[in-house]
Design brief:
The chain is built from three helices and no strands. It is mainly alpha-helical.
């Protein structure tokens, strides 16, 4: 079951993945063990989020012709 959820999360963009990870974390803090395997899902989502976190380089300066 967690692998199916993590496969879905792997297809999301960073912003959506961050919001889902944050909401899972807050729910887990407020109501511990509400969903089975939520800790494993949270760890996987955080790993995916960190893997997608990249520094964007500024575009190269274009000289006018």
């Amino acid at each position: 079951m967690p692998s199916l959820i993590l496969a879905f999360l792997a297809r999301l963009r960073f912003r959506a993945l961050f919001l889902i990870t944050l909401s899972i974390f807050v729910v887990d803090l407020v109501i511990p063990d509400l969903i089975p395997f939520v800790d494993e899902i949270l760890l996987g989502a955080a790993t995916l989020m960190l893997a997608q976190w990249k520094r964007r380089e500024p575009p190269p300066n274009k000289l006018p012709e």
